[in-house]
Amino acid sequence: MISESKSWTRIVKHGKSKHFDLRKMFSKDPQRGKNFSLKIADLNFDYSKSLIDDKTIKDFLSLAKEIQLDKQISDLLSGELVNNTEKRSVGHIWLRSKDFRPSKIEGVSEIDRVQSNFLNFASDVRSGKIKGHSGKNFSDVVNIGIGGSDLGPAMLYKALLHKHDGKVNCHFVSNIDELEISQVLKNLNPESTLFVVTSKTFTTAETLKNANFAKRWLVNSQGQDAVRSHFVAISTSANACKDFGVDSDRVFPFWDWVGGRFSVFSSVGISLALGYGSDSFKDLQKGASEIDSYLKAKDFSQNAAFIHAIINIWNLNVLKLNSLAVIPYTSSLSRFPAYLQQLWMESNGKSVTKSGKKSKLKTSPVIFGEPGTNSQHSFFQMLHQGNQVIPVDFVLVKDELGQDKEFQDSLFANALAQAAVLAFGKNKAELKSVKTENELISHKIMPGNRPSNIITLPNLEEKSLGQLIGFYESSVIFQGLLLHINSFDQWGVELGKKTASNILKSMSDATKPDYDSSTNQQILNYKKKN
């Protein structure tokens, strides 16, 4: 366990022995902004406002060497069963980076063929070659899925809306809530609506409930024969898809070595190709692949994703900062914090190590976020003056294509201002120097010394967005390997599913429910409304 390693002992000792003061650190090193910044592909990562120094990084590099991080990365890329609890390889990187593909893994040789099939299908839908049952072109796509089958595609679809050509509009349905799917369908024409149902086993309760609702909606208007023309499945279960009514040539698989939260560059991302075209999808992949190439580098000190990873482990376990606010300064990335919640917290929200022992270290912060400047008018008060210090990742875009320069400048200026005020604040002497009323001084003090990072994208093009995803994926994976946890399973999700299934039966069962007293009472109260 790394908590017992010599390197970790040095890391903790360093954290306890020094007070990290951003004002003093910037004063001592006038070039800190430059010296604590890295480029990774086209992204710029400025970590100068994090509460770390050169020794922090040096000690984490020693830890990486001590635990043979380079070998662990090599094992992951070569197809070793790094997902040890499910006895699976981890291969989402192979989808976009051919150089990493190991020939020994089942399914790897099929990647290009499967991708070609679903991208050709998407192109044929967009061109009108593939039509609906009545002969109309498809104008709308409804993506039905949950978790990784929804969050990644929905986030990227919205991020690219500034490039939408109006050919095919995509809509996303995830929750097991009739109001959600009804609101989507009420404005659509069944004759020109295509459904994409994503479920690896085609047994996901929420997804199938919504898929069957959509099927009834379509059949009521177009008849049973229309199903085969209006449904596509992303699944490994061809038989279940056939039973539902999906033709085999419209079932696009992905593999058990692609986890849901890492699956957007597989056939799960077909909605992006339908909405924006196959070239758009390939450019997203290319961007992520450019980040993957940094995994080959042996010098972790120059890998921005590694530095981001160690900062978060340091914040969580040494500085005892339990949350992370992710603030994209563009409404186009409004769904990015939600996407990141699954990527990060489902991956690393674990309490035992890979060997099954209780982890002595915290493994994941609580992730939350909202676009700036909206968030400045909601929870930033707490970030600046609350008695809990919450680190921030600011995600900035240098050039939002088509955006008026005045708007763009304002967004960027606001983000930089927030990062600076969090770091340096305003003290009592400074308030007195501007003749602040004495009774208000304590209320206006901004303590500062609140850490943040700035990740800057050059633009909102597909390649940049792919790089952003690849950056955070790499950071999450580095953290998991350093903490010796399995970032690729999610056992905490399973028990709730089974319990919900049992409680659902109790909703219509005449017998008295047999759970805890609180659950029993809630079931009985719910039944009364019926």
From TrEMBL:
Isomerase is among the record's keywords: yes
Native organism taxonomy: unclassified sequences, metagenomes, ecological metagenomes
Positions of the UniProt region annotated as Disordered: 509-530
EC id: 5.3.1.9
Annotated GO CC locations: cytosol
Keyword set includes Isomerase: yes
GO annotation terms (biological process): gluconeogenesis; glucose 6-phosphate metabolic process; glycolytic process
InterPro entries named in the record: G6P_Isomerase, G6P_Isomerase_C, Phosphoglucose_isomerase_CS, SIS_dom_sf, SIS_PGI_1, SIS_PGI_2
Name of the featured protein: glucose-6-phosphate isomerase
Family: Belongs to the GPI family.
Pfam assignment, any one: PGI
A Gene Ontology molecular function term of the record: monosaccharide binding
Annotated keywords: Gluconeogenesis, Glycolysis, Isomerase
Xref: CDD domains: SIS_PGI_1 (cd05015), SIS_PGI_2 (cd05016)
PANTHER family associated with the record: GLUCOSE-6-PHOSPHATE ISOMERASE
Pathway recorded for this protein: Carbohydrate degradation; glycolysis; D-glyceraldehyde 3-phosphate and glycerone phosphate from D-glucose: step 2/4
Catalytic activities: alpha-D-glucose 6-phosphate = beta-D-fructose 6-phosphate
